[in-house]
Specification:
about 150 residues; mainly beta; two-stranded antiparallel sheet; two-stranded antiparallel ribbon
Length: about 150
């Protein structure tokens, strides 16, 4: 949608996070807002809305690698919302967070250890083309189909 308008009638520009990942929008009027987050390169979105508000990730992505994700409507009123993650920012609602997870990789090679030395010897190196290798699950799974 269109950018929000602040208390002075000016469009609210995008915020940039600081070194600690914090951001803020100030001089807002009471009303309904959404916040759109941009996914950093090399990351995917974490699971949304699965913890206490303020300690979970709020944007909802259609796919874990969508370029952007948007929160549900956040209604801003004069009543302050408690911050379960105190950070020193004086905000009316400090609970709109976004979580990302780095995309990682692993792998190396499969070789024949003919002399049973248990180390790769480049002289004895033998490639195995099309050798099946299966990755098994981990403790943290983000397998949510939408």
């Amino acid at each position: 949608g269109a950018p929000a308008i602040d208390a002075f009638g000016a469009p609210v520009g995008p915020a940039t996070t600081d070194a600690a990942g914090r951001y803020s929008f100030t001089d807002l009027l009471p009303g309904d807002y959404t916040v759109e987050f941009t996914l950093p390169a090399g990351y995917v979105w974490t699971v949304d809305n699965t913890g206490g508000d303020g300690l979970d990730s709020d944007p909802i992505a259609g796919n874990i690698d969508d370029a952007t994700a948007v929160t549900n409507v956040v209604t801003l009123t004069a009543a302050s919302v408690a911050d379960p993650d105190p950070d020193g920012l004086d905000l009316t609602n400090p609970t709109v967070d976004a979580g990302v997870v780095p995309r990682l990789s692993l792998g190396d090679l499969v070789w024949i250890d003919a002399p049973r030395a248990r180390v790769v010897s480049r002289e004895l190196f033998s490639q195995w083309a099309a050798y099946p290798v299966q990755l098994k699950g981990n403790a943290w799974q983000r397998v949510v189909a939408r």
